[in-house]
Amino acid sequence: MTAQETVDYFAQLARPRVGALLRLSTATHLYDPVPGALNSQFTGGGVTLLYDRWKRGVQPYKDLQRFVSEERVMQSVIDPGLLPIAKAISADVRGSRLLVTRRIAAKKGDIGAVAHVEGYGIRVVLTLDEDSGDTLVAWECLYGVA
Fold it and tell me: Cα separations (Å) of 88 from 16, 21, 68, 96, 132?
């Protein structure tokens, strides 16, 4: 499996898991598919919102292919990447009525394979750390609350 196929697979598996982890009961979730960056603005439904929240988590793997099998991928790759993001969003949304997530725009100097968890504004990046030889899986989310 190539790096791009692997990261696409992670994003595909992560989509239903994010929904299960977030369980938004008091806030409405909107997804903005237009790529954007930190501190960009969302205007819609009579609300202007600043995307001022960014959460990123990175896990190193010596041999990532060992964890790609169906029985290991959720507990070894997907959950460790999504849990910190879901916890941060849940804490930030507490007491708010609206959560807006946005697709993350490509940055200058981006390297590695990139995939997006559609509907949630989460980007998965797979890179190789030249110094240690580890494969790094980074999970990033851009969002704002009102």
Answer: 18, 11, 26, 14, 29
